[in-house]
Design goal:
Keywords: Disulfide bond, Glycoprotein, Hydrolase, Membrane, Protease, Serine protease, Signal, Transmembrane, Transmembrane helix. GO terms for molecular function: serine-type endopeptidase activity. The chain is α+β, with helices and mostly antiparallel strands. A hairpin with a 2-residue loop joins strand 13 and strand 14.
Length: about 400
């Protein structure tokens, strides 16, 4: 008995050390947990034997808040908590009448491998300018990411700087006579798939049916120091199965292109962020959105550096604002599990930026970005509240099950 109590103490001590640095508080003790759409109660971890048992088996509990000790989503019975967690957690989701099996235990590993693979496209091999007998192709570095410090303030993006950027077009048909309205952004994440916001899938102008890659300007093909952009049809649209129109949760979608994209200096996927910890520091948002609330959209691809906002402060700010439209979007508050907040006074993403990336530059692999968020909603473009982004790492298992099954 003494040994069992000691083992439980060690488990709780490790759990405390792992999450003690977090500063968020989403739920109070006794609240109903809606994390992963379960029916559990937010309880002190010391009062929850089901989650203690799960931790002993090497599984991580769902944290729902922090006070003097950790709060976890607690099941009512031990059997319900761990019956499906013995070895490999599996979850089936229906999407476009297809079932995708999510292997939780290996989530993120495939994304990391693909990131390394796509990083190879930073280089190209070209014929030397002077052809000599026995000459071999020359390795050329096509990196366009600027190495200057992150200076806050919207500015024009450069050629090759965001090779993953996609411009999403909506129309009522997809033939040569289609009138295309370019209303959203997205990010290329593989040879065939783009990730965007679910609220971009269907608009008053039609469905998301087109994607332009390798572009800096809307409705232009003569960009300086630029190759011709590529416009492809979107042949499949997969909204997250738990997305509900008008809500700010699970606002993520995948768009399948009509054919594989050939990578070059101007077109290359972005890496998926698999870090489940809390973010701090700065990140870059990019898109063709409006430069002010209810203003006209930008014809040029813009970039803006934003501060990643403390999630507890973000949640409190939105609660305090008591804006009806926002309360409808987020009735359970700004969740740190599947949302990210970012802001800089006077600088923010805006209308037309929806679906575009919030990204950080990676140290390794070379010349690659990692997408941590997808532009979802905010408060009149940097007016008073942080912008809110769908947290990509939370959805990596779902993304992998579709993009790299």
């Amino acid at each position: 008995m003494i040994i069992k109590v000691y083992q439980l103490f060690i488990v709780l001590f490790i759990l405390y050390g792992k999450f003690a640095s977090s500063s968020f508080l989403l739920y109070e003790e006794g609240d109903e947990c809606d994390i992963k759409r379960s029916h559990r109660t937010c309880q002190n971890v010391k009062k929850c034997p089901t989650e203690a048992e799960a931790v002993r088996k090497g599984l991580e509990p769902d944290i729902c808040g922090l006070r003097q000790s950790q709060l976890v989503c607690c099941s009512k019975t031990l059997k319900k908590s761990i019956s499906n967690k013995k070895y490999l957690l599996m979850k089936e989701v229906a999407s476009n009448k297809k079932k995708h099996v999510i292997k939780r235990a290996a989530a993120g590993e495939k994304s990391k491998r693909m990131c390394l693979k796509y990083a190879e496209s930073v280089y190209s091999f070209e014929e030397p300018q002077i052809l000599l007998p026995g000459a071999t192709k020359v390795k050329v570095d096509n990196c366009g990411i600027r190495e200057t410090p992150l200076i806050v303030g919207g500015e024009l993006a450069r050629a090759k700087e965001f090779p993953h950027m996609a411009l999403i077009g909506h129309s009522e048909n997809d033939d040569e006579t289609a009138v295309i309205n370019w209303q959203c952004g997205g990010s290329l994440i593989s040879e065939r798939w783009i990730v965007s916001a679910a609220h971009c899938t269907a608009t008053r102008r039609g469905l998301a049916k087109w994607a332009t890659l390798g572009d800096l300007k809307v409705l232009s093909t003569d960009d300086e120091d630029y190759t011709d952009p590529v416009t492809l049809r979107i042949v499949e649209r997969v909204d997250h199965p738990d997305y509900h129109s008008g809500r700010g949760y699970n606002d993520i979608a995948l768009y399948k292109l009509e054919r594989d994209v050939k990578f070059n200096a101007y077109i290359r996927p972005i890496c998926l962020n698999t870090n489940t910890g809390l973010y701090s520091g700065k990140a870059i948002a990019s898109g063709w959105g409006n430069t002010k609330w209810k203003g006209s959209s930008s014809q040029d691809l813009l970039r803006v550096v934003l501060n990643l906002f403390d999630m507890n402060e973000c949640n409190n700010a939105y609660k305090k604002a008591q804006k009806p439209g926002i309360l409808i979007k987020t009735p359970q508050g700004i969740s740190p599990h599947n949302l990210v907040c970012a802001w800089e006074r006077g600088k923010d993403t805006c209308q037309g930026d929806s679906g575009g990336p919030l990204q950080i530059k990676l140290e390794e692999p070379y010349c690659m970005y990692s997408i941590i968020g997808i532009t979802s909603f905010g408060d009149e473009c940097a007016k008073d509240l942080p912008g809110v982004y769908t947290r990509v790492s939370y959805y990596v298992p779902w993304i992998e099950s579709i993009v790299w099954p």
